[in-house]
Amino acid sequence: MALGLGKAIRNAIDSIAGKKHKEPEEPLEPKDEPSKEPASDAQFAPMTDASTFCVGRTYVPSLSFNRIWRFNRPFLKEEDQKIYDAMSVAIKQCLPSIKFDCGRAAKDAHYLINVLAALMEDDPSLFYIDSEISVNNYGTSAQVIFKYNRFKDDREKYYEQMKSVARQIYNARVRYCHTVYEAELAIHDYFTRNTTYDSSDFASAHSPVGPLLTNRGVCEGISEAYCFVACACGVKTAMASGILNKDRHRWNIVEIEGQPYHLDVTSDLNGMHAYFNCSDDRIRRTHTLNRRYGCVSMAHNYYVMNGASFGSLKEAGTYIRLKSGIVPGSFEFAIDEETDSQSIMAAVQDGITRSATITVSSNNGCFKVTLKDMSRWPEPRNGLTERSPDEAPVHCIGSAPCDRIHKTIAKPATSEWMHHNYHYSLHKLMLSRLT
User: Fold this and answer.
1) Sequence-separated (6 or more) residues with CB below 8 Å from residue 17
2) Which of 23, 201, 260, 327 has its CA 20 to 30 A from that of 55?
C-alpha cells in the first residue's frame, strides 16, 4: 500500500506550492436550479435500475432517483434471489405480508431475515420498513409478515423531502465533479461535516430521514442516507454490515472503475478519512465482516490518491516535516506499520518553523495533524501558559475510536529554540509545564 518516498515528496512540495487538493466548502447554500431527473420520477417509484450509472472512468454528473445498485443480491442463493424480488415488490406496495414457496423447509426462518437485510442494504428508498419480520410456516411455504415504521403512511412526503436535500447536495457539491472519486468524496465530506451521531429518535436515527432532514443519526441511518444521495448522483453505492466494537454496525460499499471499496462514513465523523475506500483486509483491522465482499483494491483509497500512504514512519518522515512547515494548516496520512501518536508528534515537531499548537488525531493507522498559529500568543507567565479555548479536548463522534493528542510549541523566528511550551491531552486536559 505504501507509495514511494519520491512521489510523497513531490506531492508535499506541490501542496506547499498551492496545488493541494481542494476540500468542498463547508456551507450548503445551493442555487435553486432545475435538476436533470427524469419526468417519470413524479410518482413514488423508488430506484429500480442500475443501468444509468456511469461505467469505467467516465463520469458525467447527473441527478436521478431511478438508480439502485443491487450489490448484495448476487451473494444470495438463486432461490433466495426470487424471494428478494418478491419482498421488494411487496414492500413497495406496502403489503402487510407475502406468502411464497421457499423451495425447502421453511422451519428455519433465519435465511428469510438475511434476504430482507440484503434487500434493505441495496435499496435505501425502503426506509419505511423495519428489519424485523414474523414468519408463519406451511411446510415448504412461508408467510412473511412485515413490520413498518412510523414513516409508512407519509412515506411519499418524506421521500420528496429526502430528494430535495439530495438535490441541494448535488447542486452545491457534485455537479462540477469530474470523476466518481471526486463525487464520492464530496458527498462523504458533506455528511462528516454536517451529521451528529445521535440515537435519541430511534426511528429517524436508523433511517435516512434522520441524517438528511435533521442532520442526526446512527450508522444505519447514515449509511442509508449516503447510499440514497450517492446513487442519485450516479455513484454506485450499496451497504454492508458486520460488527464494530462488539456492536452491530453498517457502512457502505462503493464501486469505482469496476472495483468495490468499503466506505464507513460514521467512523469518519471525527473529521478524518480513515475508512474512505478500504479493502476487505484493511477494514478488517477494526471491523468484523459478515462475509468477504470482494474488495481487494486500495487504488482509490483516500491516502493512496493523495500520495499520503506509507509503509513506515521512516518513509513518512520527509512528508510529515514538509507538511508541518505550513502553519496554520492540517494534513492526513496513513502508515501501515504500527505507530503511536507520540512518535507522530515528534516528527511534526521537527518540521515546525514557527510557534504552533499541534493536534494529532489517530484512527485505524491513519493520522490527522492540525496546526494552529500561536505566534501571537502572549509569552508564558510564571512558568505556565494557558491553553487557547479552541484547544479544549474534543471527543470524537462515531463508531470507530479516535485518539487525539495536543502539543503547543513556541519557537522564535530564528532556527534556535528559546523555550518549549507543551501540553498533552488524550480526551482530557493535562497540566502544562515550561522547561
Assistant:
1) none
2) 23
* Amino acid at the residue 143: Q
Residue 425 and residue 406: Cα distance in Å, rounded?
Answer: 6
Instruction: Indicate the angle between helix axes 219-232 and 180-194, nearest 10 degrees.
Output: 140
On whether residue 260 sits in a domain, the answer given is yes
| DSSP-derived pairing of the beta strands 216-217 and 196-197 | parallel
Q: How far apart are alpha carbons 183 and 235 in whole angstroms? A: 7
Q: Is residue 13 part of a domain?
A: no
Handedness of CA 297, 299, 304, 307 (dihedral sign): positive
Quick one: cell of 367?
A: 493520522
The total number of structural domains in the chain stands at 2
pLDDT tens per residue across span 196-226: 999 999 999 999 999 999 999 999 999 999 9
Name the residue among 18, 304, 63 with its Cα closest to residue 177. 63
Q: How far apart are CA 382 and CA 432, in angstroms?
A: 12
Nearest alpha carbon to residue 20 among 319, 390, 351:
319
Tell me the residue type at 68: I
Q: Answer whether residue 357 is part of any domain.
A: yes
Domain residue limits at 389: 306-434
Q: What tens digit of pLDDT does each residue of 117-171 get?
A: 999 999 999 999 999 899 888 877 889 999 999 999 999 999 999 999 999 999 9
DSSP bridge pairs for 137: 142
User: Is the Cβ–Cβ distance between 408 and 394 less than 8 Å?
Assistant: no
What's the rounded Cα separation, in Å, for the pair 96 and 182? 41
